[in-house]
Predict the structure.
Amino acid sequence: MSGSFERVRVLILEDNVHMSTILRTILQGFGVRTITETRDAADAFEIMRNASPDLALVDYMLGDVDGLEFTRLIRTATDSPNKYLPIIMVSGHTDRTRVMEAINAGVNEYLAKPVRPVDLYNRLVSMIERPRRFVKAPGYFGPDRRRRQDPRYTGPKRRATDAENAEPDQG
C-alpha cells in the first residue's frame, strides 16, 4: 500500500485542525508525500492555482463557504483552477439528503466521519482505477452520477446522447 500514492498531490480543506491532522496522517500512511492543508475555501481556491492538487478532501461543513458551495465553484466558476478536480466530500452527516446534495454539487465520492483508513483507501483506488467521466447537463456539471447501468431500464437514454454530453477525460 505505501508508496503507491507517492506522486499524488492532495489538498485538504477542513476547518477542524484535529480532523485535518487525522486525514494527513492517513494519507501519509498510504505514501502521499505532498499534502496541502487549509481551513478556508477562498484559500483553497488560491492553493489550487499554485499547488495543482490531484485531488481534494473537502469537509461538508465549513465557515462562510461550505463544502457544497466550494464544490459548485470548482465545477462551474469561470475562474476555476481545475473544474475536473476529483473531490471526496468528508462529513459526519450521512443522511441521504446530505449525500445527494453533495453528489448533485459534483463530488466524486462521499466519505463518512469518523474516517476509517480502509474507506479512504478504497475511495482513492476507485477514483484512480474507475474514474467517472464528466457530464454537462442542465443545472449540473461534474462526474457522471450514474454508478452503473440498470439492466432493467429498456427505454431511451436519459440524456440526449452520452457522447454529446460527455466531457473529454482530463487525467
